[in-house]
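chain below, 982 aa
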Amino acid sequence: MTPVTGSTAAATASARPTTGGPKVVRTAHAVTVSVPASANAPGYTLDVATDELALTTRRAGKTVLATASGDTGALRFTAADGTWQHATGVTDWTWKNGVLTVTADSTLNGATVQARITPGADRYQLDWDVHGGGPKQLGLAYDLSSAGHWYGHGEAETPQGGPGVNQPWPLDAGEVDHKTFGPASYNMIDPFWYTSQSTGLRVDTGNVMDVALNKGKDGLGTFTVESPDTYKATVFVESTPLEVYRDYIGIVGKPAKSDAPYEQYAKPLWNSWAQFYTKVDQEKLLDYATDLHDNGLDGHTIQLDDKWESNYGNLTWDPKTFPDPKGLSDKIHNMGFDFGIWVTLWINLDSDNYQYAVDHGYLLMDAKDTTKPCEVTWWNGQAGIIDLANPDAKAWYEGNLKKLMDTYNIDGLKFDTRFFDEKCAPREGHQATDYQKLGTHLADEFDLQGAGIRVHWNQTAHEAGFVTRQVDKGTGWDSLRASATQNLAISTIGYPFVESDMIGGSGGQPAPSKDVLVRWAQSASLMPLMYASTSPVDTNDTTTGQKVDYDQETVDLYRQATKTHEKLAPYIWDQVQSTLKTGDPIMRPLFFDFPKDEASYTVTDEWMLGPAVLAAPKLSTGATRSVHLPPGTWYDVNQGTVIRGPKTLKGYAAPLGVTPAFVNLKAKGAAKAIKALKRDDAPAASVLITPDAPSTDSGTPFEVTTEVTNWGTRTLKNAKTALELSDGWSAKATGPTTAKSLKSGATLITAWTVTPAGDARWGNHDLTGTVTYNGSQKASDTVPAQVKAAPGSVQEPYLTTDTTSGDTQYAQAGDQFAIWAGGQDLSGWKDEKGVIYRDDAAGEKATVQARLVSQDSASPVGKAGIALANDLTAPEKGGYAVLVMTQQYGLEFMTDGDGDGKLDTWAGGGSTYHPAYLKLTRDGATYTAYASKDGDTWSQVGTAQVPSAAGTGDAGMVASAANVNYPGENIEAVFSGFSVTS
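prediction:
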């Protein structure tokens, strides 16, 4: 059916929108909803395609999210026979009371789709149904690339072994195939995804979903709800990914408290699982605790994991392996540890408590036959699950737990369980999603000892403030890397108090190598909490049954990591308090803090810990790594130096004893973080010059400030600061330059007036601030001080010409030149440029060369470079060619092949760089272009025939703003070393 415009009533409504509110208009192929920008939202448009129902979200005219097209379909569903169908042409639409209602045909005869879109300032609600056709599932499908990169989801099931040994970051960098994505899942997941284009998707459902992102590398995101009921989704449209996250948290809630106290953030939890797995007994556990204690491997708790019970669900000790549990508890307490045990809500079918629970109706019932208990399979056998919606069952279970804890002086519990299973039926009056809430309430009555609990999907779970531990990891490098990206995923779906899986892994694989164990401890030391198991003294290889001894360095480096974390705990605790106010994650991706830093969106092995600490631990083999620093002023805690971003540190030294970390000096908490993380062998003092890129004209004074800070623990003696300058420059201090003593944490601030030399060359000149202290120790900071070119004139033999419509300006200082020019483009369709040139300087065999020092234009295709022509004032006279660098898209070599004065051949590409050495050679009618980054090693850009070249011609430097899309904007281009040899 041909799509039709909505009713007259609808059109009238759209013509009189609420002032400042959404507007709806009909175009040839779409109904478009426009939401204007406001103080707190960027505004957006939503195009609802009518030829075939599809949704395209745009912000400032740019697509930031689009549904899939073609046979996949945007709004899709399965028919009764299991085949996929989707909405097709729109047959009607109305706009009424702020809701756009769209009706569409579908690929299934007799089935129509109705979608209701409710736009808000920073989001729109999308609710839709299928009428007729007996649908089984409803789903949305998106073109992943339309929104950049995708994040969120939580622990992702992947073909590459996720979530145990794999967690793609971004999600579209790998493959996600998560078929049982639901509220009862053991995985920590929420139906929320966000993108690098600052859009987000929340699916509001209590049903199981089938979620796939880039499955089979198909570039699609499909979000299918296993239900025929109304599909409810919210699409967020914001300016930054952090704002999308905050919108989501505004719906699902933020932590009302931290379930873990300060001590559990400061020291590790030691759990027995990866050390022994189920081959644990009283003697082994006591030896384990003693080794940790005697080697200074501090912790707040020794927690006994699986296989202490006589049978699963009995909540009684196995007398063979634990003959004196009270004595064990007392000895652990005497070493200064709390004592905890592992528990579950599963009751195995062969346990003593199972029949008792059946007889009293304490178990969940089967979904297919509610007259019998639900039997489920878990990793330790067949079991029933205690029904927490039954008050008597809950009271019985809690009573058994509390009696056990009181009798044996047990301080806390590790709940390792599911509270519901899809095979089971909820108790009358309850839904499956209620069991996450019930489990949350149960766990909240006990000290979880920093092991937290795995509840999710609902507001109660978000507000409870539990620590979140990851699913079991392997023991290799892949699992270590997954532990980092998985924490980012969990943190950014609203669970901020994260820790990795047990340090070293716990997935039943061979014991971790020394390097993996140490690197994992170092990584965990820069996370909110540390969750430990494998002892760095010795452990057991579960695959061979053999004991594994680690060397003393392993113990020392592991201890160093725990001590670092303990020193960092005051800073971390500040972040906990901040999170309770804002809901923002503590451990978060770089782009949450630096959304304009494009490189941050694909960094997989760094994160921000609060606003001040950038963690970059080594998560692979080797002793070096690359570190990306976003914009800012960073203190290297290992080297004691100040680095300005954005910058990539290639080959950063990270031997086994070094954990790369950097502190943003401008961020809240920087001083506290540096005090905790600075290595003892790093310089005690640092120097910081502000501003970090001062600029001035030749001979014109400017102001800078040096800040000397003592980051050490001892007072510095006789600190003296100075500026090191280029020849002919001078500096005068307008404040104190010395401090007889500088206490820990104190800063010596000095203001300076710096005067460049009168003949200072344009461009950057190093300005170095230094401090000497304690006799011979020294630290420094260097910034580029730019001497700017100022418009003036050029001297003979140089001439100028201008083909732009504006006032082009020029300058010359010795062998330096500058052009300020407008111009719509410098290409085949427009030849608008400013030129500094030499007349009749290039013979039939000639080389033209210049150094392009810098260029600055609003347009990404602004161009600056060199040119040849028979007559540069009249390119139509032939012999015309240019070699230019664009602002963002690399080189362009263009020539006039037919002599009409228009550039019609092209070669080039690559990345933009400065300084750029450019060279054009002419051999008769053959022109060849070259470029170099250093002036020594040259690469050919291209060669071309220019038949109209004749006799001796002009050679010069050119610049064009290429401002056709940036009206009124100019380019500034600076050159040096222009030469013509002939």
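The first strand starts at residue 23 and ends at 26. The first helix runs from residue 8 to 15.
thats it, cya
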